[in-house]
Design brief:
Structural class: alpha/beta
Radius of gyration: 19 Å
CATH architecture of the largest domain: Alpha-Beta Barrel
Strand content: 15-25%
Shape: globular
Helix content: 40-55%
Length: 306
Amino acid sequence: MNLNRRQLLGATASVLAATGCPGILRAADPPQRSQGSHLKLSLAGYSFNRQMVRRGTPEQLDGAEMTLEKFIAFCAEMGIGATELTGYYFPREITDEYLLSLRSLTHREGLAISGTAIGNNFCLAEGEAREQQIQDCLNWIDYAAVLGAPCIRIFAGTVPQGDAEEAAVERCAAAINRCLQHAAARGVFLALENHGGITATSERMLQIIEQVDDSAWFGVNFDSGNFRTEHPLEDLRKIAPYAVNAQVKVTMTVAGEKQPTDFKAIVQILRDAGYRGYVALEYEERESPFEQIPRILDELRPLMDG
């Protein structure tokens, strides 16, 4: 008899429970999908990182070269179907009124909100700073729910100096688990990004995933440019089945060498994994995003389904 991973874990847990052994296994499974991939194009607000103001006052935001409101208009002008409203560029004081104004604006512009993002560190040792990181994530789950954003990109973080990676992995997974129940209650996905630090390799990332509770509201943010290993495409293939959100960058680093991203290869990895969802361009190059993004979107459009 062939058992899938969830059935195997469940059977093992039943045996452990029956024998009185501790440590019942639980781990996040890849999301269940309909047959066949379906990819939709989005654009990440981080693409204008140099033009945006982070956590600004109303006066600072009004004077910025790019704001979230201007970014929404830019996405509409580009003729794409969605926008990622990255959390760094929201005002210092976030109110429901402001969130709803963005939700209204995106809908009037014919855009979906593909997600948002926070810059958290879940590897911190127990203490006030770690608790604040968890509380910030809980707050952003609420913001995302009001905004209508289905997904939050979250980070794992970095290992504190002198600490062991294994311990940091455990703390990261524990923090995600503390946030997952609230995310499920608000209908918001938590998508763990391969973003350097403790997720610099697919092996470490999968180790975290193995310690996250099995939940329909957890998955991976697949970022094409963030594995800087000898074989980043192979690493991306390993995490692709868990993807609930995806991003593509213009360049990749392969064995220490920066090179242009093979968009077709990245898209094929997502299709092979049966991914259905948004693929957000996250532009990080030095050339003007105003000039370069339209050209890159034109390269990506033929590879998408919508």
